[in-house]
Amino acid sequence: MFEFIHHFFTRHTQQTKTKLAEEEVLIIARDAADQPLRDSMCMIKVEERKGRLVWTVASATIGSGLEIAIDDATGKIINIKHVGVR
């Protein structure tokens, strides 16, 4: 099941030309994540929003989790969103 979810989130990164590499984005996201969720930050996708490329990195957790949006051009965090029960 995890492989299917990972494939769903990473299929867009393989088709889109980005400035940042997937590994760089994961480092940025993990540095920004709270300690309990840091190691679970692994679901990643990139999409165009309002003319710019934005990476979304999410934790692979059940119940509560974290989504971090990162601007591809600058490498800066746009948004950190806690999801689910916390």
Question: Which labels suit this protein?
Answer:
globular, Nuclear Transport Factor 2, Chain: A, 86 residues
How would you describe what is shown here?
This protein is α+β, with helices and mostly antiparallel strands and 86 residues long. It has one domain (2-84): Nuclear Transport Factor 2, Chain: A. Helices cover 28% and strands 38% of the residues. The protein has helices at residues 2-10, 22-32, 35-38, and strands at 41-49, 52-59, 64-71, 77-84. It has a 4-stranded antiparallel β-sheet. Strand 3 and strand 4 (77-84) form a beta hairpin. The two termini are 24 Å apart.
- Please count the beta strands (DSSP E, at least 2 residues each): 4
Name the strands of the widest sheet in spatial order: 1-2-3-4
Structural class: alpha+beta
Q: What are the secondary-structure elements, in order, as H or E?
A: HHHEEEE
In short:
The protein has 86 residues and is of the alpha+beta class. The chain has helices at residues 2-10, 22-32, 35-38, and strands at 41-49, 52-59, 64-71, 77-84. The protein has a single domain, classed as Nuclear Transport Factor 2, Chain: A (Roll), CATH 3.10.450.
Topology:
Layout: H1 2-10, H2 22-32, H3 35-38, E1 41-49, E2 52-59, E3 64-71, E4 77-84
Antiparallel strand pairs: 1-2, 2-3, 3-4
